[in-house]
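Protocol step 4 of 5: obtain the predicted structure for the target chain.
Materials: sequence only (see below). No template structures provided, no constraints applied. The aim of this step is simply to have a reference model before the mutagenesis design in step 5. Sequence pasted as it appears in the construct record:
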Amino acid sequence: MSAMAEPDRCRLVLIWPQAASSDAAARLGAALSGGDVASLIVPQHDRTDDDFQQLCETLLPVAQQAGVAVMVAGDTRVAGRVKADGVHVEENSAGLADAIDRFGGKMMVGAGGAKTRDDALNLGECQPDYIFFGRFGYDTKPEPHNRNLQLGKWWAEMVSIPCVVMGGSEIASLEAVAATGAEFAALCEAIFGEGRDPAAEVARANTLLDATAPRFEDA
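Step 4 output (structure tokens):
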């Protein structure tokens, strides 16, 4: 995650959307101008490896210039080629362990794909840099998925590895995510959806977190 001065509460993680954009750099730059963002996760979705690499090459300098870490979720070769800050892996514990063996110490390795507590614990045994609760592209409802909230709350109470919990399609969903005690809340549609102003939405997100998120120093 970003090495910038960090608020003492849940921070925002941005998920790059599936929809193609001819002004990707400008959209990301606008979002990052709106306030604190810990990191950007760029999923491959259904892009070809070449298109995915081109997208990452476009986004990476914008994010890194703003002090925001970029996690590439998809082809790990692309992550290496573009010199991303990390890779986001959605595999079983054996696949995650292999990624940590290959990339650990060189870049961050985050874990996703856990649907149950047992899934999460198995991934956690590999000691990733974070664990992600949610699925890319499934933030289609205003509120977060209840399963993600439950897993995030349980994990934050039990395990020291940071967790990221996927929010809903509205900024207001951040309040429920932050209440779980998760270190990070992820948004995609709420920031980059059609008709949204990314800068204004990131500003709204941080205002809401400032007002409602529990402070970790008080935990």
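Step 4 remarks: The mean pLDDT is 94. Strands lie at 11-15, 39-43, 69-73, 86-89, 108-111, 130-133, 163-166, 184-187.
Proceed to step 5.
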